[in-house]
């Protein structure tokens, strides 16, 4: 049962952090890629991404860090997971889409690394509090 709570609370943490990014920092994306953006985001695919991504953060960063009682392990693995995940998306876009800006690729990979790191830290502390 604690794993379910870990998943739910870590998902909430990730969603809250990413919401702040999308609300305040990522507003400039439309200047660079507005021609590619939908007028209304499709919420279902976004939700599926959140749910899948948090599974990865927990399996590849939170639990290894928690099991070794090493927050730095969770931090480093979380950063690596975020960088790899967001690089997959952004570099594929850079390779396949016309006029996909390099600046968006760089900013988004940095953001993916950052949000995954912060989420891994939150998940580590949640796991510790729950005694997973």
Explain the layout of strands and helices.
Blueprint: H1 2-25, H2 29-33, H3 43-67, H4 71-96, H5 102-130
Characterise the protein shown here:
The protein is mostly helical and 132 residues long. It has one domain (2-18, 44-130). It is built from 5 helices and no strands. The protein has helices at 2-25, 29-33, 43-67, 71-96, 102-130. Helix 4 runs antiparallel to helix 5 (102-130). The chain is elongated, with a radius of gyration of 16 Å. The mean pLDDT is 95. This is DUF2177 domain-containing protein. Keywords: Membrane, Transmembrane, Transmembrane helix. The chain crosses the membrane at residues 6-22, 43-65, 71-89, 101-127. It holds the Pfam family DUF2177. It comes from candidate division WS6 bacterium GW2011_GWC1_36_11.
Looking at the chains present, what oligomeric state does this protein adopt?
single chain
First CA to last CA: what distance?
9 Å
Helix content: over 70%
Averaged pLDDT:
95
Q: Label the structural class.
A: mainly alpha
Q: What is the radius of gyration? A: 16 Å
Number of helices: 5
Strand content: under 5%
Shape: elongated
Low-confidence stretches: none
For the sheet with most strands, the description reads: none
Total count of strands: 0
Total tally of structural domains? 1
- What order do the helices and strands follow? HHHHH
């Amino acid at each position: 049962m604690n794993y379910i709570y870990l998943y739910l609370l870590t998902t909430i943490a990730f969603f809250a952090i990413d919401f702040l990014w999308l609300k305040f920092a990522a507003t400039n994306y439309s200047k660079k890629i507005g021609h590619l953006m939908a007028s209304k985001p499709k919420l279902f695919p976004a939700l599926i991404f959140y749910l899948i991504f948090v599974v990865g953060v927990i399996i590849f960063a939170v639990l290894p860090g928690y099991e070794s009682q090493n927050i730095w392990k969770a931090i480093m693995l979380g950063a690596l997971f975020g960088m790899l995940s967001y690089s997959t998306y952004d570099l594929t876009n850079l390779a396949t889409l016309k006029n996909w800006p390099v600046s968006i690729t760089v900013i988004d990979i940095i953001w993916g690394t950052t949000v995954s790191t912060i989420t891994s830290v939150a998940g580590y502390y949640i796991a510790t509090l729950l005694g997973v």
